[in-house]
Design goal:
3 helices; three-stranded antiparallel β-sheet; 2 domains; elongated
């Protein structure tokens, strides 16, 4: 992938149809492979994440960003976990 998490893209999230800001605004339109998306978002294939045992809302929010969902930390931890479970089942 020719884009790196630097400068204007430091908080961007890669998805199949482009790079998006945390608030959902499209920054760069393009088609990205799952490998490119994982590389940009910092996902590692060999490392298994388990969001159910995350210790804080901050960790849940950070994990959510890596999988492409923005969570509202004002909600309860139980609600955040439900949103993540629903999102990852898709």
């Amino acid at each position: 992938m020719k884009y790196k998490k630097k400068g204007a893209y430091s908080k961007a999230i890669a998805k199949p149809n482009g790079l998006f800001a945390a608030n959902g605004v499209l920054l760069v339109r393009g088609q990205f492979s799952q490998t490119d998306i994982d590389e940009f978002n910092g996902n590692k294939k060999d490392e298994k994440f388990s969001f159910s045992n995350r210790s804080s809302k901050d960790d849940l929010e950070e994990y959510g960003r890596t999988v492409g969902i923005e969570l509202d930390k004002r909600k309860s931890k139980k609600s955040l976990l439900k949103q993540l479970r629903d999102w990852t089942k898709k």
